[in-house]
Amino acid sequence: MVELVTVGDTSLRLSPRSNERLETATDVRMHATGTESNVAVAASRFGTDVVWLSKLSDTPLGRRVVSELHEHGIETRVGWSEAGRQGLSFYEPPRDPRDRVRIDDREGAAAATMTPGDLDMELIRSASSVFVGGSTFALSETAVETGEAVLRAGSGGEAASALDLDYRPELWSSGDARDTLTDVFDAVDILFASEDDVRDVLDRSGQARELAPSVAAEWDFRMVVLTRSEHGALVYHDGVIHDRDAIETDTVDETGQHDAFVGAFLAALLDGEEPDEALSNAVATASLARTIPGPLATVDAEEVERLSETFDQRGF
Length: 316
Fold this sequence. Notes:
Blueprint: E1 4-7, E2 11-16, E3 28-33, H1 35-44, E4 50-57, H2 60-71, E5 75-81, E6 88-92, E7 101-105, H3 121-126, E8 129-133, H4 134-137, H5 141-154, E9 160-164, H6 174-182, E10 190-194, H7 195-201, H8 208-219, E11 223-227, E12 233-237, E13 240-244, H9 257-270, H10 275-289, H11 301-313
Parallel strand pairs: 1-4, 1-8, 2-6, 4-5, 8-9, 9-10, 10-11
Antiparallel strand pairs: 2-3, 6-7, 11-12, 12-13
Helix pairs in contact: 1-9, 9-10, 10-11
């Protein structure tokens, strides 16, 4: 039985090399990036049996996405579209005092037409856990219906159905995200989000330690997991909050850290770890992901364990 199935869109990200700007760059790096595939890669680094499902453009660009994921050992099951295009993402990293620039060009992406009929729903129903990111829901009404079908089919497993708010203001408004995602919350067992996304999408105020139990109580989540940027992360489960401080690192590329966190957390749960242990694993993984260029967390399970144990011994 597959442990984790992730379902969603993956774009090709183009980023300038060195300190160049998108406006003037003539040489760019290309990476596959998507919340669900990034989570799949991170989870697989810990030995989790994971499959990524999607629909892609039947073009060299769509095949480029699959090739890169295969290089990371991910099993993919893809429906190929002759009509839909391959989504793109353009990313310029921040250089103090410049802010980062991210442009999502995903309108008309093949995944926007993905239906349950394009997916192996039996695989989803039999998996221990399923995961979808909110940015996939932003693509179309069809994607909304498919995302909901996936979550409902996956609820009831060991780690069950998991959703990340994954809010992208470039794709939709916070109000549209709130209206759409809260409608599927009854099919979600574990909610992941950044602290800022909870405030923006769910229109909440307060600190993370107040937000997590409030959100869990209102929508009856089994678990709420919040990342807090430089302040670390926390998990609320069975009336108890566990938190971990962030681990200071040299940041090379911050874009993959949240997805790496989610993948590592789910991998630990599926390996039988308690939520507090999963949190330590996830924070350490996110810290290492910040030191790696690109959105995919090519971490090593042993280095994650060493880092987590080192900071736990210091009272981390």
